[in-house]
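S.,

Sequence below, as promised.
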Amino acid sequence: MKRRYATADVFTDQMFGGNPLAVVLDAAGLSTSQMQAIALEFNYSETTFVLPPDDPAHTAKVRIFTPRTEVPFAGHPNVGTAFVLARENQFAAAAAEGVFVFEEGAGLVPLKLLREGGAIVGAELRAPEALSRRTVVSREVAAVCLSLPPRDIAMHVHAPQIISVGLPFLVVELGSRDALRRSKPNIAAHAELLPLDGADAIFAYWRARDESTAADEAVLHARTFSPLDGIVEDPATGSACAAAIALLATLGTGGRAELAWRIHQGVDMGRPSLLLGRTSTQHQTVVGTHIGGRCVGVLDGVFIL
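The prediction came back faster than expected:
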């Protein structure tokens, strides 16, 4: 049986930038083991499988697989899948309304399609869960995992900590852009520490503090390492970025209820990505976390199974 797939580069406006994603459009009838084998065959950070929704009021059920495991939620797979499905005839009505709702392991994920000049150029998701804060990790342990000296781990805003808005990550603030550039995963240290509280990846970031940055916008530079999941480095990690900006918004936004975020990722591995975030805060509690960006279609094809 021939099954259709499409791929897209997500969080970029340039082909061969951003984070590549494979979307299997005809996934009905595939077993979990078949989906896992297909994801390994593509060998992207994630592959999605589109299924009929349990509730017809929703757009689709979407299952997400890394090369080694299924995950309940992820950022670039949602954004890229919405972009791909918007071109499919059976989703024309939802695309016309500009809103998709995907059923996933972490819950419902609403997405808004992004248009430019009438064309769909990307999508923005709303994280399915409120921020949860879990185990705190020492500066020394985080440094070893990133192959850095402890002095490169910043503690100004928060200690290294497991956090999640649908998929957990160890989030580590670094003291400089140079420290981010020098980061690389120490696989033995990862294996000793992770998985922890469901996290098997480390999201390291540096927050730029440039006087030219708008008062209502914050800029982060980031990298994600997940060698235990077969992904040495991820070019763009929407779920980790969403968790990080939710944490930073919780810890202080200068009294602003709404804040925009620009996250640059993938630069140091040659796949530059731009993720655009929004956080809404009430009484130091984040009530909405959004991550979006542009996409570029790359491949359309079929495989035989």
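The chain has two domains: 2-126+294-304, 132-291.

Coffee later?
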